[in-house]
Specification:
Layout (H helix, E strand, L loop, with lengths): L4 H10 L8 H12 L5 H16 L8 H15 L3 E2 L12 H7 L1 E2 L1 H14 L4 E4 L6 E4 L7 E3 L5 E3 L1 H12 L15 H19 L2 H14 L4 H13 L3 H14 L6 H14 L1
Parallel strand pairs: 1-2
Antiparallel strand pairs: 3-4, 5-6
Helix pairs in contact: 1-2, 2-8, 3-6, 8-9, 9-10, 10-11, 11-12
């Protein structure tokens, strides 16, 4: 496997039963490609320490709202974690080591910090991947509350989630049950990588965007849109044979895609130059 060492660790972590995937480790292996000197154990230990300090403050009767308030007080009031509204698309917001060091991030990475702490204090929570935003909720039957880790741990109800989505899309949105379903670890990691992919594409950093796509394809091999995007990036950096292979694979899977005519023309052009 001709991968950087960090990606080999990532591959090993995600290629086990879903319930065994350690999200924090996998996220740190994503970060390790960008920060080669990163020691994952240092940040896993930091999460352990944070959980231990919260555990000392837990109420004697650990009702969900009381536990959430305890976590919120520690993370946001004492440590000063906050959502990065000032520079939302800074790639550092998507790397767990940087989020822990800088105490700021985007919804999904702040949710990851929250989830990891909750797991360590035996307070089960799950990620909720709403479109345009990411929330978490206690994993108890009929609990009916959601936590917005990006906004100081604000507690939301389903109606609040609808309002939040309506604000994002600037039109009324009705929440369907599927929008509030828990995300699996692989989907969680894929969403983190999709954020990095879009950030690096917008910056014109093709190699880093390519690295994000490659890891998405490790999570979900053969995904047509990712094969297409990887093919387009290969074309952009002059790797024509690889570009042709990915783009042809895309067309084989979705021959009637809206962009199929453009992709066929591009493949024909590439073949003339091979």
């Amino acid at each position: 496997m001709n991968f950087p060492l960090a990606r080999q660790y990532f591959y090993r972590e995600i290629h086990q039963p879903e319930k065994n995937i350690n999200l924090a480790k996998a996220a740190l292996y994503i970060a390790q490609e960008e920060y080669p000197d990163l020691d994952p154990e240092e940040f896993l230990n930091a999460l352990d320490t944070m959980a231990e300090e919260i555990e000392e403050r837990l109420p004697s009767e650990p009702y969900p709202l009381r536990v959430i308030q305890c976590i919120n007080n520690y993370l946001y009031d004492d440590l000063g974690f906050t959502g990065n509204n000032d520079d939302y698309y800074d790639p550092r917001n998507s790397y767990l080591n940087q989020v822990l060091e800088r105490k700021t991030g985007i919804p999904i990475t702040l949710s990851l910090v929250y989830l990891e702490i909750a797991q360590r204090i035996d307070f089960p929570m799950v990620g909720i991947g709403m479109p345009g935003h990411f929330l978490i909720r206690p994993d108890f039957p009929d609990v009916g509350i959601y936590v917005d880790a990006f906004n100081q741990g604000e507690i939301l109800f389903e109606q609040d989630c609808e309002q939040r989505l309506s604000q994002i899309y600037q039109q009324p949105v009705t929440i369907s049950p599927t929008l509030l379903e828990p995300v699996t670890p692989r989907r969680f990691l894929s969403r983190m990588l999709m954020n990095l992919k879009m950030i690096y594409l917008n910056r014109g950093e093709w190699q880093k965007a390519l690295a994000s796509i490659e890891r998405i394809l490790l999570l979900f091999p053969g995904t047509p849109t990712e094969l297409r995007d990887r093919g387009l990036l290969y074309y952009q950096i002059g790797e024509l044979a690889s570009a042709c292979q990915d783009l042809e694979s895309y067309l084989m899977q979705v021959p009637n895609a809206e962009d199929s005519s453009f992709i066929r023309q591009l493949v024909a052009q590439i073949r003339e130059n091979l």
